[in-house]
Design brief:
The structure is a single chain. 18% of the residues lie in helices and 31% in strands. It is built from 7 helices and 29 strands. A 6-stranded mixed sheet has the order 7-4-6-5-9-8, with no helix packed on it. A 6-stranded mixed sheet has the order 16-13-17-21-20-18, sandwiched between helices. It has a 5-stranded mixed β-barrel with strand order 22-25-24-26-28. Strand 8 and strand 9 form a beta hairpin. Helix 1 packs across helix 6, helix 3 packs parallel to helix 6 and helix 4 packs across helix 5. It is elongated.
Length: 415
């Protein structure tokens, strides 16, 4: 009997707890969530400075400019970024100034170097300049004492730059989870030698390590463990003693019976839940606690394993690491081709290419091959179209999409 995807997600997430908090170097916080609100200890910019290379002046010195007139002003010196502040000494004079330098005392505007005629010891200004022109005011970006980011902000490169700019060297965050990836089965090999009859190469472990890294967790490769009760018990318990969660693939279908299933039932105290989800692909799924540590059992088919990860493991990671929004937002796009299907009680997640057109509109192209073992076709996909149980959709219909990779742009390249 199948169960709705939402029921499985609720079952998993109810058993996931947020991790403890730590204080880390700002450079180690990418992808993590703040565990406390962060206040600005400094203003940005910390002083009035120039946004351009040019000349700092008093706008009152330009009062005599008419529509077709000009005024000559003497250049009394220069100031570069990092130089101590200077003052304009005399009326009718300017200071040459470089981008980022402190605005001199007495100056109230900067004229761009390209907007004046530069002579040996003077400049000629031929238009009025407004007070404040080309000046970045102190605190115009950030005011000291203001809140920079609330609790549970996911830190991007831009966030880290802001924190560094106001003097944060260490940041309070929910710590990064440690996830182990393990493959089980005596038929699996992980080297380049020629395969013997009955052997297959382990691909799922490599794909799962990559998507875990993309989810901003610390990934631990637990390797391949032979299908032997003692070896599996030892490997699972050792991993549970060191990690925050374990991810495996294969051996989770209702009809499967191997040592992996027997061991997990034992180690979970009989609480490992073997599910059949009302989705395609990724129908079989298992979840339980091994020595108090979440264990995700994903399907063995390569595509199904990756789709299961997006639907069930990635949300769990986000909850564990303190995210507010743990589910990937659904996007709306126009289908470039039809996807006819029959009613079968399942939600179909259709591998596809999501594109952004020059107009900014989103369009999505279903891929031709949708069978769950076709990993090569999955490598061309950056999105999953969500097709509810029904008759599918037609070309030109608007559909819901989960983005799983970078956008494909239809804009022509410049250069």
């Amino acid at each position: 009997m199948t169960i709705p995807l939402a029921e499985a997600q609720t079952y998993v997430l109810d058993r996931i707890s947020r991790l403890d908090t730590v204080t880390l170097c700002v450079d180690d916080c990418l992808g993590l969530c703040t565990s406390a609100p962060l206040q600005a200890e400094e203003s940005i910019p910390p002083f009035d400075n120039t946004a351009v290379d040019g000349f700092a002046l008093r706008t009152s010195d330009l009062a005599g400019i008419t529509r077709h007139g000009s005024i000559r002003l003497g250049v009394e010196g220069s100031i570069a970024a990092g130089d101590p502040p200077l003052d304009l000494a005399e009326p009718g004079t300017v200071l040459r100034i470089m981008t980022g330098a402190v605005i001199p005392g007495g100056a109230d505007a900067v004229v761009k170097v390209e907007d004046v005629l530069v002579e040996a010891e003077s400049i000629v200004v031929s238009r009025p300049i407004a007070p404040g022109e080309n000046i970045r005011q102190a605190g115009s970006d950030i005011i000291r004492g203001s809140q920079l980011f609330p609790t549970r902000t996911v830190l991007t490169p831009a966030h880290l730059g802001v924190l560094a700019s106001v003097g944060y060297s260490r940041v309070p965050v929910f710590r990064r989870a440690r996830y182990g990836v393990i493959s089980t089965g005596s038929e699996l090999v992980d080297d380049a030698r020629q395969l013997r009859p009955g052997e297959i190469r382990d691909s799922n472990r490599h794909s799962l390590k990559a998507v875990l890294a993309d989810a901003d967790v610390q990934v631990v490769d637990l390797g391949i463990v032979a299908d032997e009760e003692g070896a599996l018990t030892e490997a699972f318990l050792a991993a549970a003693g060191e990690l925050d969660a374990i991810v495996s693939s294969g051996g989770v279908s209702v009809g499967d019976f191997d040592y992996t299933k027997r061991v997990l039932d034992h180690l979970s105290g009989g609480e490992m839940r073997w599910m059949q989800l009302a989705v395609r692909p990724a129908k079989p799924f298992a979840f339980g606690m091994v020595a108090g540590v979440p264990f995700f059992g994903l399907p063995g088919n390569p595509v199904s394993a990756l789709v299961s990860f997006e639907l069930l493991v990635r949300p769990a990671i986000r909850k564990m690491q303190g995210w507010r929004e743990i589910f990937t937002p659904e996007l709306s796009a126009v289908a470039l081709d039809s996807y006819p299907r029959r009613r079968d009680g399942n939600i179909h997640f259709i591998r596809s290419q999501l594109q952004v057109r020059e107009s900014g509109d989103l369009v999505v192209q279903p891929l031709a091959k949708q069978r769950p073992h076709m990993l090569h076709e999955m490598s061309r996909s950056n999105a999953l179209i969500i097709s509810p149980d029904g008759d599918g959709f037609g070309k030109g219909d608007r559909v819901k999409v989960l983005q799983t990779g970078p956008f494909v742009s239809t804009k022509p390249r410049q250069g």
